[in-house]
Structures are given as structure tokens and as C-alpha cells.
Specification:
Elements: E1 35-46, H1 49-57, H2 65-78, H3 80-83, E2 92-102, E3 107-118, H4 123-141, E4 149-159, E5 166-167
Length: about 180
């Protein structure tokens, strides 16, 4: 493995979380207009067929796996600013965590929608919620399947703010 060191930041770098001297800073959003902002993120966790069957049957000794994972995702979205150092605390107006199972892929797919009315987007909240929801599935099922794989955590879509609407060209795995 080759490690390449790059000096981050500086004028014209394109990275908004660095000042002109290359020092990390929290972006000043004080002058931005408040708009309705929405972000959707998704990911999957692949597992053995028996593990998926246990989840669907509700046979986990720890209880309702997807119900607990949904609550974990919601809680994670609310605490994103505590986990990602330069994120702003956001007054979320909605977090929806949805799951779908795919027997052919032996996977649980997760999609999160995060919304706010504010000066900064909710992409990180949606991505964090999806990640933590999938990690919770792993945690609750690891006693029977340590080989589960979390895959494809990504932003599907965002809207609102100065940059407007953006949608991923790859919406595979979205519910």
C-alpha cells in the first residue's frame, strides 16, 4: 500500500471545510438562506440465508432486529454533529428509516430520508442514519453470522440550498 500525503485546503481547493491556510474549520452558514432540505441515503447488509430467515421470523434472541435498527438510525441522525467533527447541529424535521429484504441477494436494504428547514444540508444525517441502522443489524445478528457485509452506503439524492437538486445516477438498492 502506498501512502500519499496531500496538503488539504488552501485557496481554490474546492474543499469547504478548510480555510485559506489549509486549516480545518466549521463552515460559516450564518448568511445562507433557510430552505427546505431533503437527503436520501441507502445501503445494504448481506448475510447468510439462515440469518435473513431469523430476522424475518423474529427469532433473534435480542428481539425485533429491524425495529431496533430503525430506532438506532433515527437516533444516529439526531446525533450526527457529535460524531462528524465539522457538522452543524441541525433541527431535523423528519427522519424516516425504511427496510426491505431481498431473498435472492440474502440482504437487508436500508433507505433513510432526512429533512430540515435550515441553512445547511442533511446529507451527513441521512448517511449516518443508514450506516448506524445497518451496523445495528450486524450487532444484533453477529452471534449467528459474523461474516455479514455492509455494502453500498451512499447518497441517493439531495435537494434544497444553493446547489439545488442532485440525484445519483446509481439508485440500485434504493427501496
Amino acid at each position: 500500500m502506498r501512502i500519499v500525503r496531500v496538503r488539504a485546503g488552501g485557496l481554490g481547493s474546492g474543499f469547504t471545510h478548510f480555510d485559506a491556510r489549509g486549516q480545518a474549520h466549521m463552515v460559516d452558514v450564518g448568511a445562507k438562506v433557510q430552505t427546505h432540505r431533503v437527503a436520501r441515503a441507502a445501503g445494504s447488509i448481506r448475510m447468510k440465508p439462515e440469518t435473513l430467515a431469523m430476522i424475518l421470523a423474529g427469532d433473534s434472541r435480542k428481539g425485533d432486529v429491524l425495529g431496533v435498527a430503525r430506532i438506532a438510525g433515527i437516533q444516529a441522525a439526531k446525533r450526527t454533529f457529535e460524531l462528524i467533527p465539522l457538522c452543524h447541529p441541525i433541527a431535523l424535521t423528519r427522519i424516516a428509516v425504511e427496510f426491505a429484504t431481498d431473498g435472492a441477494r440474502t440482504a437487508v436494504d436500508c433507505e433513510v430520508t432526512a429533512e430540515t428547514v435550515g441553512r445547511t444540508g442533511v446529507e451527513m444525517e441521512a448517511l449516518t442514519a443508514a450506516s448506524v441502522a445497518l451496523l445495528t443489524v450486524y450487532d444484533m445478528c453477529k452471534a449467528v453470522d459474523r461474516g455479514m457485509r455492509i455494502e453500498g452506503v451512499r447518497l441517493l439524492e439531495k435537494s434544497g440550498g444553493k446547489s439545488g437538486h442532485w440525484q445519483s445516477g446509481d439508485s440500485s438498492g434504493a427501496l
